[in-house]
Amino acid sequence: MKHIGVGVGAFILNEHNELLLVRRKKEPEAAHWSLPGGKVELMETIEDATVREIKEELGVTITLTGLLCVTNHILPPATHFVAPTFIARIIKGTVTNREPHAISEVGFFALSQLPTPLTVTTLNALKEFKHD
Q1: Is 49's pLDDT higher than 80?
Q2: 5-12 vs 18-24, strand pairing mode
Q3: Model confidence at 29, in pLDDT bands (50, 70, 90)?
Q4: Is 50 helix (H, G, I), strand (E, B) or coil?
Q5: Greater confidence, 116 or 77?
Q6: What does the alpha-carbon distance between residue 93 and residue 59 come to, in Å, rounded to a whole number?
Q7: N or C: fewer beta carbons within 10 Å in the chain?
Q8: Angstrom distance (rounded) from CA 119 to CA 71
Q9: Which residues carry out catalysis?
Q10: How far is CA 14 from CA 18, 84, 95, 122, in A?
Q11: Cα dist from 36 to 2, 19, 50, 62, 123, whole Å
Q12: What is the arithmetic mean of pLDDT over 58-66?
């Protein structure tokens, strides 16, 4: 990567206060557990990108309830994203892995029993969430 990208994520808790995570197959941070999300397309707002990416990846419609944090996702030598993370909730659909080429597992996890390793953006979102 020779430029800065913009990636978005959604911090989604279910009715049991469990966090929705996906296990990445691709770099950066392959095999890490991550908040669902993806890249912003040209002329797309970060809010619209978040809703679109979650629908594409997991087949659910979400509503955004607030901006949780922004992560400087910098992993030398070649990964550099600015990554806003939104708090969201599912309003329609059932979570299913719609991108098995990019995601190996999907699940809800208790905040006290999260799988490892976690991505940089997920760790930052959890740190910010606990300050609320």
Answers
A1: yes
A2: unpaired
A3: very high
A4: helix
A5: 116
A6: 7
A7: C
A8: 11
A9: 105
A10: 5, 21, 11, 17
A11: 24, 10, 9, 12, 13
A12: 98
* Structural element, H or E, at residue 64: strand 61-75
| Token pair 């995570």 in the structure block, residue | 21
- As a whole number, the mean pLDDT across the chain is 95
Can you give the length of the chain in residues? Answer: 132
Element (H, E) at 120: helix 120-129
Query: Which amino acid, 36?
Result: P
Q: Give pTM, 2 decimals.
A: 0.95
Buried b (16+ CB within 10 A) or exposed e, 35-60: bbbbebeeeeebeebbbebbeebbeb
Task: DSSP letter for 126, please.
Answer: H
| Residue 78 to residue 75: CA distance in whole angstroms | 7
Burial label, 121 (beta-carbon count in 10 A; 0-12, 13-18, 19+): buried
How far is the CA of 52 from the CAs of 60, 111, 116, in angstroms? 10, 25, 26
